[in-house]
Amino acid sequence: MSSSPFGQRSEDGSTNWSDSEDECKLPLNQFYPYIRCALCCGFFIDATTITECLHTFCKSCIVKHFFHSNRCPTCSIIVHQTQPLYNIRPDRQLQDIVYKMVPFLEELEREQMCKFYRDRGLEVPKAVIVSPPVVLKRQKKDTVPQSVFTIPPELDVSLLLEFVGAEEGINNYKPLERRYVRVSGEATIRHVELFIRRKMELSPTCQVDVVCGDHLLDHYQSLKDIQKAVGEEALQDGLLVLHFGLVLPSQV
Fold first, then answer.
1. Does residue 109 come out as left (phi exceeding 0), alpha (psi in the -120 to 50 range) or beta?
2. Class of CATH domain 153-247
3. Which of 8, 57, 103, 121 satisfies CB 3.0 to 4.6 Å to 62 for a cystine?
4. 63 Cβ contact partners less than 8 Å away, ≥ 6 residues apart
5. How many CA atoms lie within 13 A of 233 on its CB side?
6. Superfamily of the domain at 30-119
7. What confidence tens digit (pLDDT) does each residue in 16-65 have?
8. What is the Cβ-side half-sphere exposure of residue 31, based on CA atoms within 13 angstroms?
């Protein structure tokens, strides 16, 4: 009968577990893919998870990333068309695991946070939230603060929605007060229809037909593709003009 590091193996091949056996210890680097940020390659600090794909990063890293992109750095999924910060959440459970696995990490971050406040003559908060220090740059008086996320110019599409009327029998709807809309070029006609339905409070039985020029548009078509296909004919002062009407569903 041969010995086994996890117990005694009998002649029939079964393993007898010993109460005094040692725990199996694994090196920390085997867990690096699960506890390190793909952006800074350091251990998670203020672990923050994208709700759309469940990939996790340091909070400061993913916030900085979303200044110039609306896609996940790992899988490239679109997190949100215009405001990706809406779809991130703190992952405190994972952060607690990281602090338990990496000795002195939490203590070091707390010391750096306290130093950050003291160096700037600020009062150290009583409940210090562990996060990496951020160097704040003073803005000039003439500069206008930028928004958290700016739509990339190549995806920027400005719409002009023109209401052409409703079929007889459709009466209960509100006028579309917001005719000019700025959206991402990757938005589809389905997104435009949902916007119209919400603003005009349309009945589910009411059908929205969207037309560009002489073309009746399908739900799956993106605004970027429509603008390329139709060309300058569909533009009015740089705006992509879409006409829409309300009709009753056809009876089969």
1. alpha
2. alpha beta
3. 57
4. 85, 148
5. 9
6. Zinc/RING finger domain, C3HC4 (zinc finger) (3.30.40.10)
7. 544 445 667 788 888 888 999 999 999 999 999 998 888 999 999 999 99
8. 13
